[in-house]
Amino acid sequence: MDDDGGASPDHYGGGGGSTTFVCEMCGDTGVFSPDDDEDDGYFTCRECNFVNTSTQALVSDPGDIQRNRPSIRVPNKSTKTPKSLNADNTQRAPAARAFDEPDEPRDFVPGAADAWGGKLEELGTRIRQRYVEGLQVILQQQLQALVERHRAGALICGVAGTIWVRWVAASKVFGEMWARKLIVEDEAARGLKRRSSSQQKPPEVMCEWADEALIRKDRRRVEFIFLRSLRMMLPVYSTLSVCFLACHVAREAILPTDIYRWAMEGKLPYVAAFTQVDKLLGTPVKHCPLSARQLFRPVRVIGAWQLEATAGSIARRIGLRLPSVNFYAIAQRYLSELSLPIGRILPQACRIYEWAMPADLWLSSNPARLPTRVCVMAILILALRVQYNINGQGIWEVSIPDRVTEISASNDTNLPPPMKSDGSTSEEFGTRELLCTLADAYDKIDVAHDYSKDLHSYLKYCKDVVFPGIACSDKEKHVIEDFQEMYKGQEDKNPKVRMEETRSTNGVKKRGRDGTSVSARCLPTSSSGIRSINSEMEDHGFCYMPPRKRPRSDGYLHYRRKTTAGSLACIGHADYYMLIRSFAKLAEVDVRIMHDSVLKLERRLAWIEERIGVSLDALHNPAS
Fold it and tell me: Residue 461: enclosing H or E segment and its boundaries?
């Protein structure tokens, strides 16, 4: 662009001033006055209609240009327009676009959506790869803890690896077009929501392609869409289910209650396992935008019931044929924890197991079905009732005063227990000793977690498991230390005070950690003991039945449920209740659930006996 009006920027000064422009397209020289200014502030060539964008006059008044538009560049004599020359040294028009601005909106530029879609799929691939690798690392840490700390066999590592690979393949987390499908579905749902909330908008405003809409949206929303899908396809708690499933296949006597307890107490890496992921895989600064806390921090620890159902669901998804539970190992463990004679009870229980083989001993994906450990307990209860004739004879009511005397004598002389768990019992061991042993075991069973015993354990648990990796200031650390010292001083003054123990005038009265009332055996008189056991049975949904005065026979007694006030109530004698409540507390289920499992097993055995009777009758009378 040439300027013949001098070096002064005031081309319109003095009135009637003009400006000379050389067209960049055709090379024509034109002289323009201030009146030739277009509405958009550009001058147009009179020969080829090319808009000259090298300078701009937004207003006709030159004073307004100097006052309001200080950033406008006004060419001077030293500014020359470069010319394009061809082979004949003649001026040639440049092959450039006539406008610097695009011909259509930037949101609809061809190729922009495809470029964003490629970045989108790449982002989803990085998040998915990091998530699956992190879960695998957590699973490896859990298996290592099971082998080293909880004495599980090393076979579970190989079994868990096979199950994990097949579970990842069955979840289809590595499916093609995974990321794009998620965004399309999310945008469709958001579009439907917008249509329902604003019907007055024109259709062309609401109909947009998913990739084009994502160009204007927050990237963080896309990342958490991927994370939500991954958590649904491969939940974080699935690692615990894979561990339990591997223990089940390897015939280990490890129960869902054990996995749940160890995960809650931090003895199995789960709640704070995300702190180890970055150490083993490296910090994902460039590869994955989400942190390990966002990816692998569990919302909660699933219960033992849901843990077993999830393991059964995984086995069903991958087509794994499962065996029944290791009845012998689990029953032996339960009998040992209850201090019962293993050599006398376990063979009888194994016969019932092999004869009945109830379907409840196999894992199921149905979350409403009873756990397998409840069925094992039901078989043990049935074997005990058959062997010790626990059928409502009133043995517990009669033994209450004698048992209180024996407890006081044993506390004074520190006598050893009258039986051992290895089966070496005396011949005098009978039903009364069995019920008293179960009552002792009931009080000794501790279902509380280790971190709830005192304040120091709880604070340490919160620091290491619940809130790991959160740093405190020096002032906060001093405050915490001061409170701990104050609590420790108060605890040293009263070392015998415990929250779970209360004192009474008649003796020691204990309240279990599960909220159950005091055992009837601790009361001195028979009448008060009966009132106590009656009250406890009512609290757990049972109706107390007095002992049978004139039993017609010493055969097995079947209990039923009756309807009271529109709801089913369980009925039973005190000796039967004392039997099932210890097993229910050890299995960490409600007493009524244990009673339902016993009734179900009794119905199955009665059906088997009826079929056998019909078959034997047919053999004796082949003509009929």
Answer: helix 455-461
